[in-house]
Amino acid sequence: MRTPISFLAALAPFVSAQTVPAQLFSGLIPQKVLATAKSLPAPIQYPQYTDTSVGHWLDFVPDTWTSGFFPTTLYALNTRKTLCGATPTNGLSTGDWVTLGRAASNGLIPLEAHNNQGHDVGFLSFPFVEELAINPTNQTALTAVKAFAADLAARFNPVVGCTRSWDTADPTDFTVIIDNMMNLEILWVVYGLTGNETLRNIAITHADTTMKNHIRADGGSWHVVEYNSTTGSVIRKRTSQGFSDNSTWSRGEAWGIYGFANMYKHTKDPNYLATARRMGNYFLKNLPSDGIVPWDFNAPLIPAPRPADSSAATIVATGFLLLGSLETSAAAGKVWIDAAINLLSHITTLAWRPSWQSLLSNGTVNWPANNFLTGIVYGIIALLSSCRAQSNNKRAAGDYYYIKAGNDLISMGLATCTGS
Ligand SMILES: *[C@@H]1O[C@H](CO)[C@@H](O)[C@H](O)[C@H]1NC(C)=O
Ligand SMILES: *[C@@H]1O[C@H](CO)[C@@H](O)[C@H](O)[C@H]1NC(C)=O
Ligand SMILES: *[C@@H]1O[C@H](CO)[C@@H](O)[C@H](O)[C@H]1NC(C)=O
Ligand SMILES: *[C@@H]1O[C@H](CO)[C@@H](O)[C@H](O)[C@H]1NC(C)=O
Ligand SMILES: *[C@@H]1O[C@H](CO)[C@@H](O)[C@H](O)[C@H]1NC(C)=O
């Protein structure tokens, strides 16, 4: 495939050199995560987002779509300790991260038998995928990933060509959200373990249908597409968490960029690369000059300030690291990698909050539901993942996140474990 020269030039203003923020490696990260791990409620509940004033975590029962992120954060600190060692300043010697991660995962095991999370079983599987990277023969984790993949596969409708995201009162109203692109990874994980071609084909069909119906000509995206499950036709395109039906919700755009880059990683189908690029292009072209990701690209600027979404910023940064590592030329890859570092730098400046329990503030959980200006647990995991990616060419096989992106950052000399 040709190097997309035109977008390189068009995006130049957004990719001026920034340095990797040192906060990515701060000893405050393990300190905060350990304190949260030690204070998880019993019976277990999981942090999802914080209050808006002092940044204290609000905890939710295990049957919640975000429950896998905190256990995965604990595993991510183990990975960092493996990569960087424990030093007096990085704080990584304070916790036995694998033991903590395993203990925190246990509350998710009952969800294999029953949960109400629809397509989000992909997110719930993350800590078990991390466990398998450490211990590939752990039967509990193997059973969990297979059960979650089977759950998602059971939501596939061949007439529509998608897995169903949310359940609806009218079962013929088949709802698919752009976020669902992230959950396809569990199908690839279990395809890798078992060779079950059905899982792979479902992932591909879902991505192809989404590519056709969720992405606009300009590279923006609809949050929700409703299909008729009997006829397969599109009933309507709308938003749930965005500003308006035709706006582009930034976190959805970020999930899409990551998700299509990930599909390209698994298949090498150039249509996925082209889609990830188109969406990435939209994201950067619509980014305001301050480099801060707004919660929706079409939300009005007035009254200022238009709320940011730090989770969209960190998710898209990891998506850009992945995309950058997969690009067809080093020059094209550098555009995305530089953009990722830029976004991380700007969001750290805005939202790093030493006094909060979360690492970052300025998350928008759900603006229409008046839930914003919070910390967000998935923003954190994305942040951790992006820093681990910087040196994960030393990581053991089995990592499902950002291996190639990390290799590129290291080989370009852009970061070390100390952020220098
Ligand atoms: C296997 O994984 C589960 C869940 O991730 C964990 O609770 C358990 O401790 C692990 N078992 C061993 C022997 O490591
Ligand atoms: C492959 O996965 C599908 C979907 O979960 C399942 O129905 C099928 O039985 C699996 N095939 C095998 C051989 O296990
Ligand atoms: C889907 O199509 C069927 C058959 O035309 C119809 O009966 C059903 O009401 C439709 N469902 C929706 C949600 O439009
Ligand atoms: C949204 O886009 C559709 C076409 O995709 C158009 O029919 C509709 O009028 C648009 N709505 C708004 C509010 O712009
Ligand atoms: C970031 O959050 C602070 C409060 O935590 C708020 O005052 C500020 O307006 C927010 N900025 C943006 C761009 O969302």
Automatic annotation (TrEMBL):
A GO BP entry: polysaccharide catabolic process
Signal peptide: 1-17
Gene Ontology MF annotations: chondroitin hydrolase activity
InterPro entries the record matches: 6-hairpin_glycosidase_sf, 6hp_glycosidase-like_sf, UG_Glycosaminoglycan_Hydrolase
Keywords carried by this UniProt record: Hydrolase, Signal
Family: Belongs to the glycosyl hydrolase 88 family.
Entry-linked PANTHER family: HYDROLASE, PUTATIVE (AFU_ORTHOLOGUE AFUA_7G05090)-RELATED (PTHR36845)
Protein name: Glycoside hydrolase family 88 protein
Naturally occurring in which organism (per UniProt): Mycena rosella (Pink bonnet)
